[in-house]
Design goal:
The chain is α/β, with parallel strands linked by helices. Helices cover 41% and strands 18% of the residues. Strand 9 and strand 10 (312-318) form a beta hairpin. The longest helix has 19 residues, at 68-86.
């Protein structure tokens, strides 16, 4: 029975690929500042009456029969054609795995002639890099990403927080967008750990000039929590479900505006800088990295640490840069925890190891 079912799924997958009957769905990505749709993530379904209609079943079957690359190329082609047919003007986020991104055929699928034929501007396309498999050759991947960015495409890093080496990829690839996995959105209003995590990611994104997209927003409370953190963009069922014929405008009633009242602004404008100044105890250059990490963990509002040597100020340790370098390596804290903090701050050779 299992053998017969396997043959049936294989034959069905071949039928879908040969007849080009994949169905692209589109889910809006929303600006929480401008309250409008800025793009659509493309998702794929099999035919409605097919045992491979569900995307998980579709892609699992393709991977089992080593047809995942062929399926992915078919998805890209049919997504672009559907996007062009719908005449969507917002950005298109296309999911691409690392092994397909490095395949020369991928460049052909986004060739200038083909995009011109579809009347699609390459500047509207965001290559959303998925991490279904670990990325080992970071240097090659970085060069490929830089090449696509130089051509006008943008890059997004998908599902930050659940992959093999999310922060390392972020550091190496320097994407235009980073998408926080929906796990961190589920129950975030009542989970202080998730709130701290997302808040730290937002701070890091601000320092790197990167845009954050919160995935999986399903409730009003989740939306309000994400908005209060200053997250740039969001997507999820709260705004709209994926659809073959996507919505073109978001219901304004879904938004909750958070802003200072005029009287708040007036009261603050009369105060001096001393009102917001606060004392931060410095650390020395010999303070172990693990101790610096503990200071940041104990105080989520601590964004910098003054560095003092021989009673003279010698620098500043920035929370975001410190954490980014330390955790860009899976074993960063274990390897370097006992070393002085200057090992991260000033040793040039470290930036490719941490």
């Amino acid at each position: 029975m299992v053998f017969n079912l396997s043959i049936t799924l294989h034959n069905e997958l071949i039928r879908i690929l040969d007849n080009k009957i994949l169905i692209p769905y589109f889910q809006p990505i929303v600006s929480l500042f401008n309250k409008n749709i800025v793009g659509y993530e493309a998702l794929i379904r099999g035919p409605q009456d097919s045992p491979l209609h569900n995307p998980n079943c579709l892609f699992d079957t393709a991977e089992y029969y080593s047809l995942n690359a062929k399926l992915e190329f078919a998805c890209i082609k049919q997504t672009l054609e559907s996007y062009a047919k719908l005449k969507l003007k917002e950005k298109l986020f296309i999911n691409v795995s690392s092994y397909v991104l490095s395949d020369p055929k991928f460049m052909e699928s986004l060739s200038e002639n083909y995009l011109e034929e579809l009347n699609v501007d390459r500047r509207s396309i965001v290559i959303e890099l998925t991490e279904n498999h670990p990325t080992i050759d970071y240097i090659t991947m970085r060069d490929i990403v830089k090449h696509f960015q130089s051509m006008g495409f943008e890059i997004a890093l998908d599902d930050l927080g659940i992959g093999y080496s999310g922060l390392r990829l972020w550091s190496e690839l320097q994407p235009n967008y980073v998408k926080i996995d929906k796990y961190f959105m589920q129950g975030i209003p009542d989970d202080s750990i998730k709130l701290k995590f997302v808040h730290s990611i937002q701070n890091l994104a601000n320092s790197l000039g990167c845009k954050i997209i919160a995935e999986g927003i399903e409730t009003e409370k989740e939306f309000k929590s994400v908005e209060s953190l200053g997250i740039t963009y969001a997507q999820g069922f709260y705004f709209a479900k994926p659809a073959a014929q996507p919505i073109e405008k978001i219901n304004n009633n879904l938004f909750q505006t958070i802003s200072l009242q005029p009287n708040h602004i007036t009261s603050y404008s009369k105060k001096t800088a001393s009102h917001i100044a606060r004392l931060i105890n410095p650390v020395s250059a010999l303070t172990p990295i693990s101790d610096v990490m503990q200071l940041f963990q104990d105080n989520e509002n601590l964004t910098i640490l003054p560095l003092v040597n021989n009673k003279q100020a010698s620098g500043i340790i920035f929370r975001d840069r410190f954490l980014s370098k330390l955790f860009s390596n899976r074993y960063g804290l274990e390897l370097y925890g006992k070393k002085p903090n200057t090992f991260i701050q000033y040793k040039n050779s470290v930036k490719h190891r941490l």
